[in-house]
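Give me structure tokens for this 989-residue protein.
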Amino acid sequence: MKRLKSVFSITLAAILLAVNTGSSAFADETAASAAEAPAASTASATYDKQFVSERISNNYTKVSKGYTAPEYSGEDLVFPFSLGQGGTVTTDTRGYSGSDSVMDVTAGDKAELTVSVQSAGLYAVRFDYLSYDNSVLPVEFSMEVDGELPFYECRNVKLRSTWLPKAEKSYDRYNDEVVTVPDKAIQWESAYFRDSSYRHSRALLIELDAGEHTFGFGVKSGSFLLGSMVLTAPESIPEYSGSQTASGDSIITIEGEDYFSANESSVHAIAEFDPRVNPYKVTDSELNTIDSDSFGTAGQALTYKFNVDTAGYYYIAMNYCQPDKTDFPVFVDVSVDGQIPNTAFEAYEMAYTSKYRIASLTGSDGNKLSVYLEPGEHTISYTITLDPICYVLEDLEETMAGVNDLALEITKVAGNNSDKYRDLKLSRYIPGLETTLTEYADGLTSLEASARHFNAKAKNVAVMSSMLIASNQLTSLAENPDEIPYRIAELSSSTNSVNQHLANTIDSLLENGLAIDRIWIYQEDSVLPKAPGFFKSMWMSIQRFFASFFDQSYSASNIDPDHLQVWVSRSSQYVQVMQKMIDEYFTPQTGIEVDISIMPDQYKLVLANSSGNAPDVATGINYTIPYELAIRGALVDMAQYSDFRETASVYEPGFFLTGTIGDSVYSMPETMNFWVLVYRTDVLEKLGLGVPDTMQDVIDILPELQMRGLNFYYPTAGMRAMRNFHGTTPLIVQNGGALYSGTAQGGTTLGSEASVNGFTALTDLFTVYDMPVDIDNFYQHFRNGDIPIGICDYGTYNLISNAAPELAGSWDISIVPGTEKEDGSIDRSTCGCAESTVIFKSDSDREAKAWEFVKWWSSTEVQSEFGQTMQITYGDEYLWTTANVEAFAQLPLDSAHKQVVLEFAGNVVDVARVPGTYMLEREMSNAFNSIVVNGDSAQSRIDEAVKTIDREIVRKLEEFGYIDSDGNTIKDYVIPNIDSVKEILGRNE
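Here you go.
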């Protein structure tokens, strides 16, 4: 209690100080870094900014406005990395022509290079590099100049590799063409330092004074060679001054799917059943266009090769589809032979079209753009960029920061009391509040209007409609500012808040999907093909419609009874890769034929088994399902096989708890749902806070966070429908509690002293330490910066990694904080199961074949290859979170992050299942809500829950034959624990 009182004294003092002084610890720093306010951020608020992210206050746009030196215009200044420090200098240059030796660096290395410039100026920076590993990850490092980051974007310099598609096409067993795994070109590349989020498409400039400067590099990912760093004059692109007529009749057709290279492995083709696309097949699938889902992120580039027979000027046309941004273009830099011909080809607008359309590139004067080409081989490249709307994104982010600060200021004055009958004249305490809200609203309206020129025909920009909703909401709040305290959620915290609408706008603007069917390099007298007419299109669509009824690819109804039947609860991308690996490796090795089917509904497996239609193997099923099948006698005990322990040796024991009954193991872990502590490094650095290692550390940093309107996210807050075991049990186990003891006949031990203490430790986070109770979208709060630290699962980690490019270099992860024990050790026990694999009972021959499949599928080699194939082919968002720890260690993932996840896996102690476990999970959720939301007493509410849980366990024990109707034990239901599971696995030494 003394500890608790001291924490609250600090918190109360900090809040009172903030309210009375109206100041912030960062007021001076924020004011010093403030630059000219963008259109949407001109509100002259009289309150102080509580915290401004470096991403807003120190980005390239703001810093570059303060440049005073002229642009450098001299010769290139070349500085070999072999003269630098750090890394390993080697003479194995792999063909580099720039010097006799190069620097070899890998993730975790630091390097320095000293340069000398004779005159002050603005310099572009270019790197010569060779990425020699086969990782899908790009080369990434931070770059400091003279010990400081010149601007925010220097936190994450990204150098991409070149990926080449396979020359030969690949087909599955149903004669459908499938996506192949591209090859990484191990070659020297040269690239400018650019904004990794591609909000700025031209090289970023660094201001240097005359004299020596030290560039420092901290390598984040990749193993690569550094040849030279070159300081150059800024990129120069000729101004468009008109277009030449492309006289002649030559025409060159390039199929979109036949690209030469891409700068990301995940860019790939797809089969579209659209009459406007070529080639088009009614039955078998054939890759015929670039998948817009794979080619839609700023910075991605596609390159095509073509040959010209006759010298002259040529036009460029495309058959493309751009369905993401309604009434708004996607911008691409179009390069020919590696150069943008003129400014008309820079950030070219690919207009919105939900259907494929043929269009020629045209200039601002309406004339078709032309380029002069000599006979021979040429390239044309398309790079997606956000440059024209960079100001929109930055203005939106600054407005969101302002709204967050305003919401905090209002909360300081009004508290959390939302009583509408409370008489509080808010405008007296926050002068200019109405003006501030109105100016934010007007700024957003002006910002939307400024983007209308991208589609002059549209009255409103549909992709920015959420911005106008936010503007109207701000106007409504401004009309009655004294009512804001009970409408405070409308500013920044609810799903329909101003900030959520602005975040939705940003997400919409970041979607840049572009599908390319064909490209034509043609001259004036040639004839471009026309899209099929109405009747032809209708006939082709009718043919496809009827053909679809006979397409039984990966269908459970299309089976060979002599083959092993495997049902998979995953999408077709996963299934296609699985089937191909089975046909190429498993069947030739074992002689066992396997049919993979996409599972229609994993939760109907119990019914499928009852009707005699169960498969031999089911995989990708939720970790809770195997128990429901096993308790009904439907599954094979895998522990009976002599090589079970060897197969299970690459999985942590905690993953087996949910599929174990007695001494029998009925499921093999497939994937895990890992939990990590994720935090904004820029925010914590500015606050001077360390990364918490224990829950007490978390509690200790809360006053520093909360006095600035920030907070910590505990995952139970994100479980709105039901607070499941992943959110409710870790602190119980870490505090010495348990949910069961011995046998199920003894009921739950949730009411024991240790368990109640653990559950109270959980609820106190919300009732005592004021963590947010209900968070709809932690990802968005983390992105905004108002909740800069929290515990998240794989899904949120994946979102932050792949859907928030602007945060690159500004966040990191650590192991989940645990509870310190009396001996000083830290208990980090947690849940982590995701999907599993099971074998259904059948005849002994089929069961033996099924076990051979499970062994193969669960092996390190197969899990590793499958995971790498999915990630390389479809992108980082397809990270395969295999529970096989040896295979996970081989996946293309940031090495530091990988170690955190592997440590997490070793701490998994999931909840063993008993008859009636679902009631335990439900009642724990209900008890949490009653205590945290309704203010009930923890002990009395838990006692009530225990009675309900025990009644249900007794009922289910009777149903499954463990007790009779009088409650007498027929046979004990022994509940497995981590020690008993280790004994089954042979790891109890």
